[in-house]
Each structure stands twice: as C-alpha cells, then as structure tokens.
User: Which sequence fits this backbone?
C-alpha cells in the first residue's frame, strides 16, 4: 500500500505540472502551492516523469486498482488540529486509588501512546514529505488547555509529529521539546471560558429541569437514590452531580477493572451510555456550546486570517506557518461541532482529531474538514468549501453579546469557578 500511495502521489505531481500557465522558472502543483516550488523547467526530466506515469498505470492494472477518478488529497498548505487528550484515569478515584498510581484525571501509558501515534498520523496524512522533521517557531504553534492531561497529550503528539532533528539538541537521541502554551484554568479564556461564567452553570441547571432530563432521571431513579445514600453525589442529586461516579465506572469498564460496589457489568454499560447522553446533551445546547467554543472559534478565525495574509504576500507556504495545534477536552470539540450545526449524539473518543486543512490553490484558497482523517461536513461546508465561506461560518457562530451570555455580574463575588482535578489551577 505504501508503494501504491507513492506511485499515485508521483502521478498526481506529473499531472499537476501546468507548463502553459506558469511564469518562467516556476512550476506549481495545481492543488497545493508548496510541493513543487521554484523548480526550473530545464531541470525536469520529462522522460523520467512519463516513465513514472507508465509504471503507475501498469501497477494499477496489475493490482486491479483504478487510475481514473482517484482523488488524492494534496499536502496541506496550512492545518489547524483540534484534538482530544488521550486515555486517562478517572477524575474521582473514590475507593479505587490503588488502580491509578498516576492520580486522578491523569494520562495513562495508553493515552500517551495514543497521542504519540496521532502525531505521526497527522504528519503522514496531512503533510507527507512537505514539512521538516525538526521544529521551528516558523512552522507550528501549540496550545493546550490548562490540564495535565491536555498539556502532556500535546507534548506526546509533538514527539510523534517531529521524529528527529539533524544536529545536537542537547538531549539523548536528538529529542526535541517544542513548546506548548497553556494558562491556568482560572485565567484560561481560550479553552475554559465557560468555567468563568455563571451563565454556563445557570444553563446547565436549566437543562436539569427540562422534560427530557427529568425523564432520564426517572429512568435511573433507584440507582441515583442508592448512590446518594452512599454519599457518591454532592448537592441535590442532579444528573450533572453524578458525572464523577459515572465517569469512574465507564473508565473501569474500558480498562477491565473491578467495578465500584454493587455495580454489575450490565449496569456499567448502561451508565456509560448515560455518560454519553449527559455530556452530549449539555454541549448540544447552542448557548452552552458558544460559551465553551466561541473563544476557540475566534482564535481559528485569527489564525486563518494571519496565514491568508502571509500567503498573499509571500506566495509560498514555505514562508508561512504550516500548523496550529489545539490540545483540548471532548467538550471543546463537541462545542465547535454544535456551533457549526453538526452536534454529536455521543462523546468523541480519546485522541480524536478535528482537522481544518487549507490549500492555497494559487490564490483560490479552499478548506477541507475532517474528523479522524475522514471527510466531515457541516451545513454550508459539505466536506470542503472556500476559505471565505469557512470564515463566514465561524463568524456566524459567534454570540452577539458575550457579556449577556456569560452573565459574569449576575452572582457577584459569591461565584467560585469550578476547577477540575489535575489542572494547573488546582496546585
């Protein structure tokens, strides 16, 4: 399959050479502005290129693979990656701490491996050979939510994305340490702005009183009453207050570990479905999604505008930033999907990748959306659309009045933002 992919890639590059419409001394890939750059026609061995095309054709005929109609994505001129952290321990360990020596809410070894492999996959799928093996601030920037697991996820992902460096880095094996920027949650207005807003908690409480939430609570009435007796829930017993316990049960089931007291395997499956239901229903609320996702959407708009200006001025993506990484939580990904009109009915998996790929196309920029490297569609951008259309969709999703939505003044000094375990702010 690697040979086939390479040959298809070669044929695409052969067919992409536009001899009649290029200025002297320059050949440009029709789909991507960066692959063939500053290459003189006098240096192109046309005979060798035709041989490559012939070999590919014979290979595809031999293997039964069709040549015509094959759509091979060009390497990204620019990419935004919004990723969920890897596999983690439960947020609340309860009486199960012996199974989780890393502590609550921390990445597991499996989680680190997931992110490392994701980094390798992002590099291979979106950039191929068009990006250096070594990090430079001109190539990429990396931001993480202020949680241990999201910061470590970004670091592990970058180890996979940047496989090595020519020369001495001062570390064994030429290991690189690209910087990851994060703010404490108490001041994080990019990934966790909703935690600073009383309006977020008001809306979650309002959901608890809605008809479908009351029906769901009635379905699990006996279990909820039992857990309240055991002291497994704080407050009034709202579904939201049971998330730490349900989270612990779901993770123990994934890892094939013993369940908390009196929880059967069948009940564990049902509670995992309840976890997906609660989280997805919260973020499917459009105003809640805006509180979570609007700052990140604004950052994306700024990123694309900056890269667009650079490409207009420089004409080559090699002179512009190629990649921005946002390492976040499931709620951040779900919020962006809801804001764009494509809410999910369940939580996204660990190490999920939401990609927004830009190809400059000689001044006709086009954006392609993907979820875990598969085409992803939202209303107004069915898999791909123009950059202007994509920016319009992001701008349209922003709230008209953030102050009203956030309602910072509604609870005065009595409002204390929630700080998750395992966050920078909890130290």
Assistant:
């Amino acid at each position: 399959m690697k040979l086939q992919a390479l040959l298809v890639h070669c044929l695409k590059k052969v067919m992409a050479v536009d001899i009649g419409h290029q200025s002297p001394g320059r050949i440009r890939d029709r789909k991507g502005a960066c692959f063939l750059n500053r290459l003189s026609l006098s240096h192109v061995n046309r005979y060798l290129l035709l041989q490559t095309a012939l070999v590919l054709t014979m290979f595809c005929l031999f293997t039964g693979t069709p040549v015509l109609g094959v759509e091979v994505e060009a390497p990204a001129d620019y990419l935004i990656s919004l990723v969920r952290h890897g596999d983690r321990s439960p947020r609340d360990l309860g009486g199960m701490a012996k199974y989780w020596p890393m502590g609550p809410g921390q990445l597991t070894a499996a989680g680190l491996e997931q992110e490392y492999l994701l980094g390798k996959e992002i590099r291979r799928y979106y950039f191929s050979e068009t990006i250096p093996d070594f990090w430079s601030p001109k190539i990429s920037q990396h931001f993480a939510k202020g949680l241990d697991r999201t910061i470590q996820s970004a670091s592990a992902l970058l180890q996979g994305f940047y496989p090595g460096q020519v020369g001495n880095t001062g570390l064994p094996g030429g290991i690189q340490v690209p910087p990851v920027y994060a703010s404490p949650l108490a001041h994080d207005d990019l990934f966790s702005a909703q935690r600073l807003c009383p309006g977020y908690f008001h809306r979650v409480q309002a959901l608890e009183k809605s008809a479908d939430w009351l029906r769901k609570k009635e379905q699990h009435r006996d279990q909820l009453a039992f857990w309240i007796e055991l002291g497994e829930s704080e407050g009034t017993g709202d579904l939201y207050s049971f998330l730490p316990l349900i989270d612990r049960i779901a993770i123990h089931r994934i890892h094939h570990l013993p369940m908390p007291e009196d929880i059967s395997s069948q009940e564990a499956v049902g509670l995992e479905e309840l976890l997906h239901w609660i989280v997805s229903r919260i973020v499917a609320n459009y105003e809640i999604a805006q509180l979570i996702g609007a700052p990140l959407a604004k950052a994306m708009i700024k990123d694309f505008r900056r890269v667009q200006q650079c490409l207009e001025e420089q004409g080559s993506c090699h002179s512009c930033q190629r990649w921005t990484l946002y390492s976040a939580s499931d709620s951040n990904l779900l919020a962006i999907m809801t804001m764009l009109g494509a809410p999910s009915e369940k939580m996204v998996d660990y190490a999920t990748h939401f990609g927004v790929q830009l190809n400059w196309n000689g001044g006709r920029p086009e954006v392609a959306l993907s979820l875990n490297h598969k085409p992803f569609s939202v209303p107004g951008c069915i898999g791909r659309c123009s950059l202007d259309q994509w920016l319009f969709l992001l701008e349209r999703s922003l709230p008209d009045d953030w102050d009203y939505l956030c309602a910072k003044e509604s609870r005065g000094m009595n409002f204390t933002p929630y700080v998750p375990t395992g966050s920078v702010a909890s130290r």
